[in-house]
């Protein structure tokens, strides 16, 4: 996931490719030398910060430069790793250091931050968890980061959970100023046939039965409003209704007009793939959150 940093250019690199090769050879690591040698003069090094080896494995699955090439990144002169000692035993030699917000929730997370930093380095805050339920409050990280990399629009590196593309493959949303076309095709006979089996109002599928007060209160109000029209909301996963082994997709597609797409947070700009459960199953999503969904 950290390969998104390849879209940014880092200013300097302070080691040679030969040092990387020697390190890989001595430690029996996968050899990326064949592709790295093409970028000896301008290779940029990215460190994903970790506090122990177990954490390092969970934070980064693909080490080296190859992942940038395999994903067809616009910029591939980057080398990513969790090993702090790979550049002359000095993490100040890295062009950028990425800090996953999850490290701050662990014991000693704030005390294990770098003790020294080079002025040219870029410190990057990375986080995909909703800010309202995962606050990070510590004076030590005030003015600590150069860039932010999150799902929020105003992040330096914007990384949404989902993208909407047009028929030629261009991304049109999320965007601050989305122009939605009104000349969509009309429903066909096959469209009508597919939705003709639907007889129920709203489905909601839960993976976790623990919901916050805001959600519980909102659902109670929705149930009350639906009852006036002799309609209900069926909750799967908590209570008497359970999804079949293959999941609830076919049930939603066959029986429900609407799907409650609750992302578990009302944080600004937080829109996850939950809304796709409706779109993929020909149901109308009912969204609950703090995002501007017109974007």
Class of secondary structure makeup: alpha/beta
The chain-level mean pLDDT equals 81
Which value, in Å, is the CA radius of gyration? 24 Å
Integer count of domains: 2
Task: Based on Cα principal axes, name the global outline.
Answer: elongated
Quaternary structure state of the chains depicted: single chain
Order of helices and strands: HHEHHEEEEEEEHEHEHEHE
Please give the largest β-sheet: 6 strands, parallel
Number of strands: 12
Distance between the termini: 24 Å
Tally of individual helices: 8
Query: How much helicity do the residues have?
Result: 10-25%
Strand arrangement, major sheet: 2-1-3-4-5-6
A few lines on this structure:
The chain is of the alpha/beta class and 295 residues long. It folds into two domains: 2-159, no CATH class; 178-288, Glycosyl transferase family 10, C-terminal domain (Rossmann fold), CATH 3.40.50. The chain is built from eight helices and twelve strands.
Please, could you describe this protein's structure?
The longest helix is centred in the C-terminal third of the chain and has 15 residues. This protein has 2 domains: 158 residues, no CATH class; 111 residues, Rossmann fold (3-Layer(aba) Sandwich), CATH 3.40.50.11660. It has 8 helices and 12 strands. It is α/β, with parallel strands linked by helices and 295 residues long.
Helices and strands in order:
Elements: H1 17-26, H2 33-36, E1 44-48, H3 53-59, H4 66-70, E2 78-81, E3 96-100, E4 122-126, E5 147-150, E6 157-158, E7 164-165, E8 171-173, H5 189-195, E9 200-205, H6 213-227, E10 233-236, H7 249-255, E11 256-262, H8 276-279, E12 284-288
Parallel strand pairs: 1-2, 1-3, 3-4, 4-5, 5-6, 9-10, 9-11, 11-12
Antiparallel strand pairs: 7-8
